C-alpha cells in the first residue's frame, strides 16, 4: 500500500512516542522524499552529529567493496599477508581473508583476550582509548581463531578493526583518509566525521540517569565504530544503496550491488541472512537490510528496503539498556509499517 507524506509522518510520530526518548531523531526517505521526526522543534540542518558505534561497519564494508570493484583488492586476499607480509602467523590466521573479516566469519573473538583487563577500569567512560592500532595488529598476528575461517558466524569488532588496518596497509593510505576519499567525499557526506569534534556540532551522549558522557574514543578500533554523522548525511548514505537511486561514479555501482547481495545464513535456526556488511531480514515488502549501533551514551539504527526505495535512520543520545524499546520499535517501523 502506498502511503502519503502525512501518513508516514504519523507513523514516525507514533514510533517516537513508543520509544519515549526526549532526544530522539527519526529520518525517513521514501523514493527520494524525506520525512523527519525531530525533538524540540529542531530542523534537519540543525541536527548534530551522532556516534554510530557498530553502525559504522557498513561504511567500512562499502569501502572494501569499492576497492574490490575498482580492482585494487580481492575479497579472497589473505589479510595477514597484506597487513604484515612474511610475518609468522598461525595457519588459521594465514587463511583469514578480507571477506572473512567483514562477514564475521574469521573465527576471531569479539575483542582480543587482552583487551578486557586494561578496559575494565574505564569500562563506563573510555574502554577502547588505551588499546591503539598497533596493539590491534599485534593481537591479530598472534591470534588463534576459535573456528576455521569461513565455517561459523561470530560477531567481531576485532575482525572489522583488523580489516580497517589491512585496507590501510594494502593501499598505503590511512583508513580515515581512505574512507574519506573513496566513500564519504564521493557521496557528498561532508558533515560526516571520523573523530570527535564537540565544538563543531557533535551530539553528547548520556547515561541512563542523564549524566553526560565524554565523546567515544575508539582507540585502534576505528573501522568498527568511529563514524559520526548527521541525519541528512545518513539518509544520503542509505539512499545510495537503493537500486532505483542513480549511483555516483564512486563508489562504483558494483560495490553497492555487492553489499546488498545475501552471502550467508545466521541466527537461531539460520532463519536470517547476512550480506557483505548488512543484516538482512525478510518482510512483506521485500528484504530489509539494517545495522544497529550503540556507544556508551548513544544509540543508532540504519536500514533500507531495496524493493520499495525506503530508507530509515534513527538515533538518540541515551545509554542502551536491556528493556529499551529503541531498536525493536524502529526495526518494526521499517519492516512492517512503512
UniProtKB/TrEMBL annotation:
<dbReference type="InterPro" id="IPR050491">
    <property type="entry name" value="AmpC-like"/>
</dbReference>
<feature type="domain" description="Beta-lactamase-related">
    <location>
        <begin position="18"/>
        <end position="321"/>
    </location>
</feature>
<keyword id="KW-0378">Hydrolase</keyword>
<feature type="region of interest" description="Disordered">
    <location>
        <begin position="195"/>
        <end position="217"/>
    </location>
</feature>
<dbReference type="GO" id="GO:0016787">
    <property type="term" value="F:hydrolase activity"/>
</dbReference>
<dbReference type="InterPro" id="IPR012338">
    <property type="entry name" value="Beta-lactam/transpept-like"/>
</dbReference>
<dbReference type="InterPro" id="IPR001466">
    <property type="entry name" value="Beta-lactam-related"/>
</dbReference>
<dbReference type="Pfam" id="PF00144">
    <property type="entry name" value="Beta-lactamase"/>
</dbReference>
<protein>
    <submittedName>
        <fullName>Serine hydrolase</fullName>
        <ecNumber>3.1.1.103</ecNumber>
    </submittedName>
</protein>
